Amino acid sequence: MKALALETIRGRFPDTHCFENLDSLVINAVPDTLSEILNFLKNDPALGFDLLLDVTAVDYLLYPGNHSSRFGVVYILRNWEKNGI
Q1: What pLDDT tens digit does each residue of the chain (85 aa) get?
Q2: CATH architecture for the domain at 2-78
Q3: Domain boundaries, the chain
Q4: What is the pTM of this model?
Q5: Which of 1, 2, 53, 65 has its CA 20 to 30 A from that of 23?
């Protein structure tokens, strides 16, 4: 499922950084594309990420490395039927 999801997301949003980390899919989206990406993840029949499990935020003030903004919003989605990624 993860390989299919990565391929599908990368095919639809080639400019969006998408990868697997710690057994989860990570999509780094800019605010302008967020609504379109979330809508796609929910409504694509092959993916079906129709459960918004949690929304939280990260403060990058003390994180190592260079970040484009101080705060990030994290959406945790699940596929209810397949109970996975």
Answers
A1: 678 889 999 999 999 999 998 888 999 998 999 999 999 999 999 899 999 999 999 999 999 988 888 999 999 999 888 765 4
A2: 2-Layer Sandwich (3.30)
A3: 2-78
A4: 0.83
A5: 65
